[in-house]
Design goal:
This protein has 526 residues and is of the alpha/beta class. It has helices at residues 19-28, 64-74, 81-89, 91-100, 134-148, 218-225, 265-268, 293-305, 320-323, 325-333, 389-406, 428-438, 445-459, 465-479, 506-525; strands spanning 12-15, 33-37, 54-55, 115-116, 126-127, 152-156, 158-165, 171-178, 186-191, 194-197, 230-231, 236-243, 272-275, 310-313, 343-352, 355-357, 369-371, 376-377, 417-418, 503-504. The protein folds into three domains: 12-234 and 353-418, FAD/NAD(P)-binding domain (3-Layer(bba) Sandwich); 240-348, Flavocytochrome C3, Chain A, domain 1; 428-525, Up-down Bundle (Methane Monooxygenase Hydroxylase, Chain G, domain 1). The protein has 15 helices and 20 strands. The strands form five sheets. The protein has a five-stranded parallel sheet, covered by helices on one side. It has a four-stranded antiparallel sheet with strand order 9-8-7-19, with helices on one face. A four-stranded mixed sheet has the order 18-16-11-20.
Amino acid sequence: MKNPRGHSADAVVVIGGGVAGLATALRLAPQPVTLVVTAPLGIEAATAWAQGGIAAAMGEDDTPALHAEDTLKAGAGLSEPAATARITAGGPAAIDWLARIGAPFDRDASGSIALGLEAAHCRRRIVHAGGDSTGRAVLETLAKAARACPSIHILEGVRATGLLRDAHGAVAGIAARRGGETRHDETLQLASRAVVLATGGLGALYASTTNPLGAVGSGLALAAKAGAVLRDMEFVQFHPTAIAVKGAEPAGTAGPAPMPLATEALRGEGAMLLNDRGERFMDQVPGRELAPRDVVARAIFAQIAAGRQVVLDARGIAGLEARFPGVAALCRAHGLDPVRDPIPVRPAAHYHMGGLKVDATGRTSLDGLWACGEVASTGLHGANRLASNSLLEALVMAEAIAADIGGWAHAPAGPLSGAPMPAPSPARAEIRALMDRKVGVVRDAAGLTEAVRRLDELARDGTDDMALVALMIAAAALRREESRGGHFRADHPLPVAPALHSETTMEDTSAFAASLRDKAGARQVA
């Protein structure tokens, strides 16, 4: 392995070029940072796809305490009060920081930041930039600042392949690969004084997803293979209103392309959900279209399972094209005119509430390793993320992580070890289809058991990271015999008291899968 030019062993390695990675790198200044991204900065990050915005208590009628209360309600008993209070309290300062570095937030006639409403929020507190293009606008702002920051060295086109450990067992760098998946790849070793995973989510483990196709939980696999503790892996949020159109399958993706998204802000401005009989089927549900996402997703799923088609009728929104240019463009690209036509929708995998267990400063269970953004489980989202809290969490935690690393005194000693080379999953299409069918919006023991057994077969040799992460989700879902938030079991439809987090490691998951194999073998012998 070789050390890349421009990287120094006293730098902090940050993996990921979305809002979490960029904000962390910028907050670490003037400490040296090497930012590792798999594509040109900003190209593959899920941040750019975020239509909703950033939740922050900016209004005169709002407070962080009210924001925290809404978050705790949405989290279905698993959002942690201390983490929720801390992160919601940091929202206004995070918005001010972004504004200072040039984020072009939408403003009202008085010049104040305009605030939108989304599901399960009791106040208008969603900050937008460019209407429904908030993610892209914020990402461009952060990327421009990162490129101009002298303490940040950016390695583009580089993929982390493993975590390196020092003689004391602490994470002290990464192994990486530059180039495509060919024999001409360049193998790299980046020793560092700390590593931050900001690798995003795992929605592309599902065939029906709103995520970039690279969002397969790569950071979770890196940490799991190093022995890290993961929490609440079963909680996957399915966005209720992915636009139900057929897209071309990009070459080499082994499955459907990501589904375009009809932002929740449309429902905040009055858009209604109707079935093909013209019935407003959310009419008797508390909150109607602005009920929590898991409630809306299951209601739409039930309509589709009953043979009905579902549309989002946004035709009553004044100035729709100007206020939601992204949605209008996505619809028109697929032959729809949202000003005249209702938008066909269905649920799709969107966000992962679980992830690496971290503390208030973003530290994982492994010395020398921090995590920020969707890859982390901070205690904010619980069992069901409140709309637009994801960018908020990344921004607030980036500052906390940077402050903590600033006081980190670990000095790597001796040779580094670790980092097996993962290969692209040969079963990508099968895994995505299996997750849709068996580990989706509605789950049961039979389907989850089938998923665990097959994913265990695919993951057992340790080289298929995609199968490993999918297995950890399915196993956690099978073990949670209740329904809570984004996890719904048809065979256990009620929550169980008290509400408890689930925790696992790769070793725990492998042992659970082995127990299922043993039970199956015993039944066959009998």
